[in-house]
Amino acid sequence: MFAAAMAGVLVTMALALVAAARGPSVFDRLLAINLFGTKTVLLIAVTGFLVGRPEWLDLALVYALINFVAMIALLKFVRFGSLGHDDLDAER
Amino acid sequence: MAPIELLLFAFLIAVALLVARLRDLLAAALLLGIFSLLCAGLFVLNDAVDVAFTEAAVGAGVSTILLLGTLSLTRREEKSQPTRWAPLVVVFVTGGALALGILDMPAYGDPTAPIHQHLAPDYIAGTAAEFGIPNVVTAILTSYRGFDTLGETAVIVTAAIGILALLASGRRWKGGAP
């Protein structure tokens, strides 16, 4: 069953790659990258169960956290051009 | 594990070729994040979970943001250049030499390999006795090779200061007053 789940994750990874390659806008690519990050989380979790080390689930959780934070940072940078942005009215 | 690794390597090559072909630098910078995530997945499959985590946090997070910060100071499109073949030859020769070197190495995970026989037994035996901490990797990084780690940290701090200075000075030019 875990092998089937792994196959599904890998196929979705390939689809996310195609989406990231096609674009065309920046936000399409960002969405594809976020999807790819989520698939990495799932890959690590499923691998943990495949090789008999279910404690890798904790690892996958930490990946989910940094994936979220990194995506917020990327979106903020693409939108505003900087991270240290104190006045939200000054949208460029 | 081997088929999964092969597939991930295939993805890695596909992303690398795509990044090399793209003229849109913003898209290329973002796609490098996927490259780092794939590397992290491969590291996890090879049981190097700490290296994988560093790769995911630094490669997909911090370095992408650094690249975007650099891009905000320059243009988004790469200028088209004539195809040059000399760099390709250099890359293939170097890669071939490295691959030849790998053929000579002991098998992956071989317990009788020199790297597992030379100092590792001393580190494993000495960590609990000499420092009283449970983690061997931490003992090696912070005690056995403490000066080495200090030097690495100094290098990273210098690099960070340099990058911050470069990005900050560019922004001042762009925005007029600091």
Describe this structure in words.
- The complex is a heterodimer of chains A (92) and B (178).
- Chain A has 92 residues and is mainly α.
- Chain A has one domain (2-80).
- Chain A is built from three helices and no strands.
- Chain A starts with a helix and ends in a 12-residue tail after the last helix.
- The relative contact order of chain A is 0.12.
- With 178 residues, chain B is an all-alpha fold.
- Chain B has a domain at 1-78: NADH-ubiquinone/plastoquinone oxidoreductase chain 6, subunit NuoJ (Four Helix Bundle (Hemerythrin (Met), subunit A), Up-down Bundle), CATH 1.20.120.
- Chain B contains eight helices and no strands.
- The A-B interface holds A 6, 10, 13-14, 16-17, 20-21, 23, 26, 29-30, 32-33, 36-37, 40, 43-44, 47, 50-51, 56, 59, 62-63, 66-67, 69-70, 73-74, 77-78, 81-83 and B 1, 4, 7, 11, 14-15, 18, 24, 26-27, 30-31, 33-34, 37-38, 40-41, 44-45, 49, 53, 56-57, 60-61, 64-65, 68-69, 72, 171.
Give the largest interface pair and sizes.
A-B, 37 and 32 residues
Amount of beta strand of chain A: under 5%
How would a crystallographer describe the biggest sheet of chain A? none
How many DSSP-defined strands of chain A?
0
Task: Give short descriptive properties of this protein.
heterodimer; A: 92 residues; 3 helices; 77% helix; B: 178 residues; mainly alpha; Four Helix Bundle (Hemerythrin (Met), subunit A)
Task: Briefly characterize the structure.
By secondary structure, chain A is mostly helical. Helices cover 77% and strands 0% of the residues of chain A.
Topology:
The complex is a heterodimer of chains A (92) and B (178).
Chain A: H1 2-22, H2 26-50, H3 56-80
Helix pairs in contact in A: 1-2, 2-3
Chain B: H1 2-21, H2 25-45, H3 49-71, H4 86-103, H5 114-117, H6 120-131, H7 136-144, H8 146-175
Helix pairs in contact in B: 1-2, 2-3, 6-7, 7-8
